[in-house]
Amino acid sequence: MQAVKITVCSSSDVAGEEKLEVVSFGTLHEKNGSWYARYQESELTGLAGTMTTIKWDRERIIVLRSGGVEHRQEFFPGLSQASLYKTPELTIPLQTRTRTVTITALPAGAWQLD
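RE: above sequence
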């Protein structure tokens, strides 16, 4: 397991173009052909107390959250998936449709997941 810096960039056009970039520190390791990045969510994301694990292989990305928020979300080209985003206050049903997934190994052991 190696210590890593994890940068998560997100954008939304719900109320105009809104972009958010959060930097966290966590761990990265490989097991049976899959990679795992784990980090504690920041208060800035509104997910304090939540551990996030991002798992990926050559074709899919899975985001797992546990603690303050419970959620599992999978991204695979063409996949349409229903999931439940559970908080202490409420449960929100989500429907995700993935068009594309791009997983790129970068120099020095870094990764870019889109």
